[in-house]
Design brief:
By secondary structure, this protein is an alpha/beta fold. The protein is about 45% helix and about 20% strand. Strands 3, 4, 5, 6, 9, 10 and 11 form a 7-stranded mixed beta sheet that branches. It has a two-stranded antiparallel ribbon with strand order 1-2. α1 packs across α3 (about 30-45) and α1 (about 5-15) packs across α4. Residues about 295-304 have low confidence and may be disordered.
Length: about 300
């Protein structure tokens, strides 16, 4: 069994397919594919379920999922052993940080800078991804902490801020004439809905739509938020979004009978260094306070 083949496996799973894995590893697709086949031959079992159509993403078999987690640990131990061999004396700390891809960049960057200033020898590895991806990495123990969506039931989490989900329309949309007055869910029934795949339309929001006997007419499903907002600009419909994500050239309209919030917080792995945890929490809370004050100021300016 070759370590290179384990790296191929984790890359394919982490990046969502052979093509992206080949790009990230700077290798050819046939090299990745042949390496995976050699690994399966060595193991005597299939790692990937190839019963799906050829154009579908590779899916791990149950045995493959177990082996994938073992491969992560094997590669991690190899990196530790290599680091100890190269520099056994110097004490080097390293943390892996997760960031969901819908957070304001300036807030995260300011916290990273603060951490680096206080811990100049600390090595920081950053993973950005969807909330589901970050949650998976936390569960696997591959992240030390993450800025992500949290709830009151999230273990080891600290809430940073809550922000309402609003309806987003273009400035020349018919609803712009009532802005900044609020609207009701029923006002949105006949307007095409641009569904953000990262949408915060949780079970509570769906229940509220059902209670209002309102059905959204989905016209488009956008993986990227910037694409969803561009469709809104072009008059294709409206979308729901946390207020902090709405571009300045679009309008955020409150919907009082649709009470959904995005809750952003810090979530930790167990037994994380308490001193680091205290510094990161304080720096993040300070950055979050500045961010919220900026958001409040912008809202006041717009409504004024």
């Amino acid at each position: 069994m070759k370590l290179q083949h384990l790296r191929f496996l984790t890359a394919v799973v982490d990046y969502g397919g052979v093509i992206k894995a080949a790009e990230r590893l700077h290798l050819s697709q046939p090299t990745i594919t042949s390496g995976l086949k050699a690994l399966e031959q060595n193991l005597g079992k299939l790692i990937f379920d190839r019963s799906e159509k050829a154009n579908r993403p590779l899916k791990l078999t149950p045995a493959g999922r177990r082996f994938y987690l073992d491969a992560i640990e094997i590669l991690k131990q190899c990196e530790v052993a290599r680091a100890n061999f190269i520099d056994p004396i110097a004490e080097k700390s390293r943390i892996c940080v997760g960031v969901i891809d819908t957070l304001p960049q300036q807030t995260i960057i300011s916290v990273i800078r603060e951490i680096r200033q206080q811990f100049p020898n600390l090595q920081i590895e950053i993973w950005e991804g969807t909330p589901d991806r970050i949650a998976t990495l936390l569960l696997q123990g591959r992240l030390d902490f993450a800025w992500t969506n949290v709830s009151e039931l999230s273990p080891g989490a600290v809430t940073l801020w809550r922000e309402p989900v609003v309806a987003v329309v273009s400035k020349d949309h018919a609803l712009a004439s009532v802005y900044p007055a609020p609207i009701s869910v029923r006002d949105l029934e006949d307007i095409p809905f641009i569904f953000r795949l990262s949408c915060e339309l949780d079970a509570v929001g769906r229940a509220q739509l059902k209670a209002a006997r309102s059905t959204l007419k989905v016209k488009a499903r956008a993986t990227r938020d910037d694409f969803a907002f561009q469709l809104v600009r072009d008059g294709e419909g409206f979308t729901f979004s946390p207020g902090s994500l709405v571009p300045e050239d679009l309008l955020s309209i409150k919907v009082p009978d649709f009470i959904v919030h995005r809750v952003i917080g810090l979530q930790w792995r167990e037994n994380f260094d308490p001193m680091l945890k205290a510094v990161i929490t304080e720096a993040t809370l300070n950055a979050s306070l500045i961010f919220r004050e900026m958001q409040d100021s912008c809202t006041t300016d717009i409504q004024g």
